[in-house]
Amino acid sequence: MIKTLLATTAATLCVASSAHALTPVLTSVTPEGDRYLFTYSLTLSEDEGVRTGDRLVIYDFAGFDGFAPVSVPEIGTFTEATTSVGGVDNLQPAPGFDDDPNILNIGWRWNGPDIFTTGPHASIDFVLAAYSTFGDRTLDGFSSLTVKNNGDAAGMPLYEQGAAGVPAGAVPEPGAWALMIMGFGGAGAMLRRTRHRALA
What we know:
This protein has 200 residues and is α+β, with helices and mostly antiparallel strands. It has helices at residues 2-18, 174-199, and strands spanning 25-32, 35-44, 48-49, 55-58, 64-67, 77-83, 105-112, 124-132, 137-148, 157-167. The protein has one domain: Immunoglobulin-like, CATH 2.60.40.
């Protein structure tokens, strides 16, 4: 009985991990005034569907400055969401990526209706986008949740983790750090001298 349960669980995990859940691909970074539009293309593959509450999270989206209108075929709607807390609704970033609690994560949640929960179906391409005050880019983690729509694992959740392009915050170069530290030290020394003169 236990062996059968373990074998079934392992088979389900293998099927779930081999499917292609929502994977955001950064296709462009476009300057618009004093901010930048980060545009992601995604595909809902033939063997997955979405149910109300299914979602995508992109971690550590530095300089977040609002969402752009969502471009989705007329099949339902996404709601945008941001959070600064580690992990989002039991989703975690991919191994090797930390969720910085000081940088907002961005996400989209499917509002329904449930679609393509039985399949397969023709794949569907769509676009999601958000603004940042930073134009440089780096890699960080993403996680998504959809549902398997056919085969023995039909109805089981599909989890995907990986890396996606995100805005890179302004991080001072080592030389700039050295100059700042010297500047702070000099300011401190001047304050000490001024205090000693005042006491005298």
